[in-house]
Amino acid sequence: MFSKTALALLAISAQQALAHVVVLPDLETRAAGHAAHNEAPKFGYTTLNAANGWPAQCSTGKHQSPIDIKTSAINLFDNKDMIIEWPDLKNAKLANHNPGVYVEEFEGQPMRVRLPSVNDGNLTLPLVQYHFHTPHEHTIDGKKAPMEVHFVHTDSEKIVVLGAHVDVKEGSSPLDKALARINAIPGAHMSEPTGPIKMSEMAEFFKKAPLRRYFGSLTTPPCTEGVQFFIAETKLSVNKQTLADLTTVLKNNARPVTAYTGNWNGKTDL
Ligand SMILES: [Zn+2]
User: Ranges for the Alpha-carbonic anhydrase domain (predicted)?
Assistant: First the structure.
C-alpha cells in the first residue's frame, strides 16, 4: 500500500516523465545578451537604431539574411530529401523576448528535422523555437507579406531555419492557436502557456511546399552566418484578429533585405 503522499509523488514524477520538457537556449535575442542579463535588447528596428547599423557580422558579413528569393536563381529543394518530425505539442511557452515573440519550451515528443548534410552523412537537428516577424523579412520575387514565421532547428552549432510568409485567412490555424494569448504578453519577459498546438499540420505544409534553400545568417545580432534557410513559396495563415494583435505587440521587427553577395546556391558554409 502507498501512503497518500507517496501516491501524489508518484503521480507528479509520472507527469514529469510524460511531459519531456525540452528547454534549450534560443539563439537570436539571448545571443544579443538581453535575456541573460534581464536588460533591454542592444538592437532595434527604428531609424535611430536601424538594422543596417547593427554590429559585427551584421555589417561586415557577405551572406546576410533576409534576401529576395529569386526563384529563377535559387534551386528548388527536393522535399523528399527532408524529413520533418513535428509531433503535435501538448503545451509550450509563448514568450515575449522584446523585440521578438517566441514559441518555445515544448512539451511533448521531441521535434526535429533530418536532411542530408551538405558535406557528408546526415544532419539531425532539434526544433528549439519558432518566432514571428511583422511584416515579412524575405521577399519572394519581390512579393511581400504582412507576417513571416521562422522555425529554428539547432544543436547550438549548426542551424536550419524553415521559414514561410503568413497571410490572413478566416478561421483558426495552428498559428492562431499558438498566438491565442498574445494580448496577455504585451511587454518584455512576459509569457503564457499555449495549450496544445497541431504542429503536424504545419509539418505537412512544409512537406508539400515548394522550398528554396540558400545559406544566410540569423536576422538579428550577432547575425551569425552559415544558417541553412528553407523558404516556402506558399503561405501559412492566421486570422485578421491574430495578425492585428501580434502587430500591436511586435510593431515592426523585420530586418530589410540585405545586399547578399556570392552564389545563392553556394554550399561552402556548412
Ligand atoms: Zn527570424
Answer: 41-270
